[in-house]
Amino acid sequence: MGEPSDPPEGAPGGGDDEYRSVVFDETFVRAARLQEFSAQERITDHTPAVRRLPPARRSGLSRQALVLILLIAVAFGTAVYMGVRHPYRTPVAARPAEPLRMTVVPLAPEGAVPGARDVGLLYAHSPAAGFRAGAEGVPLPPTRRTANFSDDQVVTALLTAQDYVVRSALDPAVITGGETRTVRVLLDSGQQEQFDESMHRPAADGRHAVTGWLVRFDPARVRLADPHIRVRGTLQAAEADSGTLEVTTDHTVVYALRPAGAGRDAEASLFTVRRELRFRFDREDLRLRQAELVVSHVQAGPQSCTQDPSPHLHPLLAGQRAPRTPPPGTNPYAPDTTTPALCGTLSEAAQPKL
User: Fold this and answer.
1) What is the C-alpha to C-alpha distance for residues 308 and 202, in angstroms, rounded to an integer?
2) Taken in order 256, 262, 264, 268, is the CA torsion positive or negative?
3) pLDDT at 73
4) Do 257 and 317 meet the contact criterion of CB atoms below 8 Å apart?
């Protein structure tokens, strides 16, 4: 007997409960991909019994499409956020290298230059007694990052400036020979042309003196009596602006010299060079480990004020005196004169007390 909810003729399908789960409702039938033709349609010749219906169109976007759109939106938002919050600042456009401005001042002695055969005795009785030899006398200071440059960048700037000081003032091949390449490669490419012009056509014009770039003696006149050159000084780094580091160096370098061709029995004398240099570094210089040398101030003696210091320094050796003639005059009306002739006096306190 059928249930109260069943029709009078019984449950669909003859009332068998085992077929109740396979009764298809109207929604399922309409969604079927295959549909049987009507009797009238099947009368037509060669008409198949069933026809294939086009797939039903789904309204809205699929779940996969929604997920893809969501992922794209998240990636775009992340890119925008990182662009705004990126920890590195936008690089500042590199400025062209400035030409080096240099001053070379000879220091004339007040009397005869002291000399001794024993170089160690000369150093021991001079203000350079406590100076260290070679690169050991050019130590690096403690380093600290700046607002826009990391510790590594500050160290790189200091190391490059230190390297320049050592190569340009403590390397015997540079001081008394023709070697310049080891100094040149440390310079910003924008200054190398000025450097080359100074080496090939030196002039005391404040721009093209060899001795503004490096220490240079005439090997036909003097030689080193001791290869262990004494030096003492400081290096300091500071941030000039958000894209530039500056390093200033101040070193006093002392050379023991003898006349060229003289033996070890000849008296040696001391020659002192005070060099104050200012270097500038942008980020490209730091990457290449090159420097822009913008200011060079040199004082050197004992030497005569009457000789041109642009190609070489001209030391007065043991027993020699500076001539009492004034340095060459300066003509302010001459268009090719950019710097006046400068000369100073070397204090007796700077000489060995023998």
Assistant:
1) 10
2) negative
3) 80
4) yes
Q: Which amino acid is at 175?
A: I
CA distance 197 to 200: 5
Per-residue pLDDT at 66: 75
Phi first, then psi: give them for residue 123, nearest 5 degrees: -65, -40
pLDDT of residue 40: 63
Strands 50-52 and 34-36: antiparallel
Query: Could you tell me what percentage of the chain is helix, strand and coil, using 3-state DSSP and rounding each to the nearest 5?
Result: 30, 25, 45
Eight-state DSSP code of residue 6: S
Classify the C-alpha dihedral 5-10-13-19 as positive or negative.
positive
* Residue 1, pLDDT score: 46
Tokens of 207: 């721009």
| pTM of the predicted structure, to 2 decimals | 0.73
Q: With CA atoms as reference, report the closest residue to 235 among 166, 313, 146.
A: 166
State the Cα–Cα distance between residues 38 and 44, nearest whole angstrom. 11
State in Å, rounded, how far the first CA of the chain is from the last one.
140
Question: What tokens does 61 get?
Answer: 């976007």
DSSP string of 168-208, one letter each residue: HHT-HHHHSSS--HHHHTTB-GGGHHHHHHHHHS-BTTTTB
Spatial contact of 8 and 1, defined as CB atoms under 8 Å apart: no
The Cα 19–Cα 240 span in angstroms is: 91
pLDDT at 198: 96
Task: Determine the 3-state secondary structure of 29 from DSSP.
Answer: helix
pLDDT at 107: 95
Which class for 345: exposed (0-12), middle (13-18), buried (19 or more C-beta within 10 A)? middle
Q: What are the residue ranges in the chain where pLDDT is below 70?
A: 1-61, 80-94, 325-331, 334-341
Q: Which amino acid is at 75?
A: A
